[in-house]
Structure formats: C-alpha cells, structure tokens
Amino acid sequence: MGMFGTFTYSAGSWTGTDSPTEPVLVIDVHDSDIATVDYRPAVDAAGRCYLGYQPRVYFEDPAASDPVDNDAEARGLARWARTATGRDVDPDDVLALLAPDDEDADPEDLFVEDTVRRLLELAGLPVPEELLPEE
C-alpha cells in the first residue's frame, strides 16, 4: 500500500492549520501515485497541478480531474516559490516534474513522494519528515 498524506506549507513552515495564510502550498499524496499540488497566490494560473499522474490519466476517466495547463502552472509555481521563499526557480525545471496529460507517459519516479521532494528542494522548501526517504 502506498503513502497517503496532506501537507500544508504556510507562514514559513509546514503546518496543520485549517486556515493557512498566503503564500500557501498544499500537497496531497494519494497512494504514492498522485500528488495534487494547490498553491496560492496563483497569478495567471489555476493554482492546481499534479505530480506523478494526473487523476484523469491514472483512473482512465476524463471526469476524474480538470485538464491542466502545465506550462501556466509551471510559471505559476515558479512565481509562487519566488514569493514564498525568495528563490528564483526556472519554470522549465518545474515543468519537467509535472504530470503530463498523456496516457502513454509514465512518471520518472516510481513513487510520487520522490517527485514531491524534488519539487520542494527546487523551491527551497524544507521537506516534511514524513516525505524523507527511509534509511
């Protein structure tokens, strides 16, 4: 069985608050295959993207999730990182981590937690203990 968990970054740390303040990043890991990434503020983007698989691809059901403009979300997440951490992030580096809307494409990482870690490190965020690799 894969990992399930929701992680919220707000006010400079990972928190469990129900009403986080912006900038905020929420990552919801589903069975080590899908990570939903929600972020605010989202400028010129929807503020939601996926790592691993997009639900619409994973469940072979177009109604399982809305289509994602990965280019816009990569720019949005890069902008979010600059706001939240002050780090300049290349949107192309973010884009390389996002789940494609292509049923023939498999994610680079076997476990989405690995991709989540890479995204957090890219953005200059600490990695929650639950997402650290086991030693």
Written description of the protein model:
- The structure is a single chain.
- This protein is α+β, with helices and mostly antiparallel strands.
- It has one domain.
- 27% of the residues lie in helices and 21% in strands.
- It is built from four helices and five strands; from the N terminus they run E-E-E-E-E-H-H-H-H.
- Strands 2-1-3-4-5 form a five-stranded antiparallel beta sheet.
- It is globular.
- The mean pLDDT is 93.
Main traits of this protein?
five-stranded antiparallel sheet, 135 residues, 21% strand, alpha+beta, single chain
In terms of topology, how is this protein built?
Layout: E1 5-10, E2 13-15, E3 24-30, E4 34-40, E5 48-52, H1 55-58, H2 70-85, H3 91-95, H4 112-123
Antiparallel strand pairs: 1-2, 1-3, 3-4, 4-5
Gist of the model:
By secondary structure, the chain is an alpha+beta fold. 27% of the residues lie in helices and 21% in strands.
Mean pLDDT score, rounded?
93
The ordered H/E elements are: EEEEEHHHH
Structural class: alpha+beta
- The count of domains is 1
Query: Percent range for helical residues?
Result: 25-40%
Our estimate of the beta-strand percent is 15-25%
Tell me the strand order in the biggest sheet.
Answer: 2-1-3-4-5
Q: Total strand count, please?
A: 5
How many separate helices? 4
Question: What is the makeup of the main sheet?
Answer: 5 strands, antiparallel
Work out the oligomeric state of the chains in this entry. Answer: single chain
Runs in which pLDDT lies below 50 for 5 or more consecutive residues are none
Which value, in Å, is the CA radius of gyration? 14 Å
Query: In angstroms, what separates the terminal alpha carbons?
Result: 19 Å
Described by the principal axes of the CA atoms, the overall outline is globular
